[in-house]
Design brief:
This protein has 230 residues and is of the alpha/beta class. It is 35% helix and 15% strand. It folds into two domains: 1-36, no CATH class; 41-229, 3-Layer(aba) Sandwich (Rossmann fold).
Length: 230
């Protein structure tokens, strides 16, 4: 009873508003939870933006390891960005039900190539995971496994703590700067096809470094899967 009364008091003092329609009551109102989806973006190379295909273009393939990218919405979408911020930085786990529902609704346009993928995640550093109490990319990877009916496994560890790329200015980000930040877990056999999940793709430096570690351990194709692409 006390916890319920305390929750009501907090809600009265700090009312919540739907991130999409701004209606008071919840992080996402029932209508937006059940119906909202972003306008699909044109397929393009995740690194340089060359339109036509979600695969990494021939030019970028010369310097990168990620083979392509599926994403739900652009990071510039205010609703998605606010929902991710509430989840990651404010620890609002109520965002999870909304994100999973939205991803399931959009799954047909986000399907990776038809290979026998294993779903895995770009891991947080152990210190940041302790701070947050959860790893959002790992949670995403488990959803993706269920959505596409593929195995969900852990293949990587993050060896060194780095600054969040989504909070780093564009001019300061470079593909290749994160190389060496990840390693394959000892004793793990990396499969040929890996679907690599993370919440946000900005410059691609983080995901590409993780893809490099997987390919150097035997992966043939590493395809990215994110909620938002910068």
């Amino acid at each position: 009873m006390e916890s319920r009364l305390g929750k009501l008091a907090v809600e009265a003092l700090f009312p919540r508003f739907c991130i999409v329609c701004k209606r008071e009551g919840a992080l996402t109102c029932r209508h937006c939870f059940e119906t909202w989806t972003p306008v699909p973006q044109q397929a393009s190379c995740a690194f340089c933006g060359t339109p036509g295909s979600p695969r990494t273009c021939a030019s970028c393939r010369e310097e990168t390891y990620l083979d392509g990218l599926s994403f739900f919405a652009p990071y510039g979408n205010a609703s998605v960005r606010e929902l991710l911020g509430a989840w990651k930085y404010n620890g609002d786990r109520s965002a999870e039900a909304t994100l999973e529902t939205w991803l399931r609704r959009a799954s047909t346009r986000m399907e990776p190539p038809a290979f026998a993928f294993y779903s895995t995640s770009v891991p947080l550093h152990k210190s940041r995971r302790r701070e947050r109490g959860f790893d959002q990319a790992e949670t995403l990877s488990s959803w993706v496994g269920e959505i596409f009916g593929i195995p969900h496994e852990t293949f990587l560890i993050r060896k060194r703590k780095t600054s969040p790329q989504a909070r780093t200015s564009h001019d300061e980000r470079r593909v290749g700067e994160m190389d060496g930040a990840f390693a394959v877990l000892p004793g793990v056999d990396v499969p040929a096809y890996v679907l690599l999940c993370d919440d946000v793709f900005t410059s691609g430096a983080t995901m590409d470094a993780a893809a490099r570690a997987l390919k150097e351990a035997g992966a043939k194709t590493v395809w990215g899967f994110v909620i938002a692409r910068g």
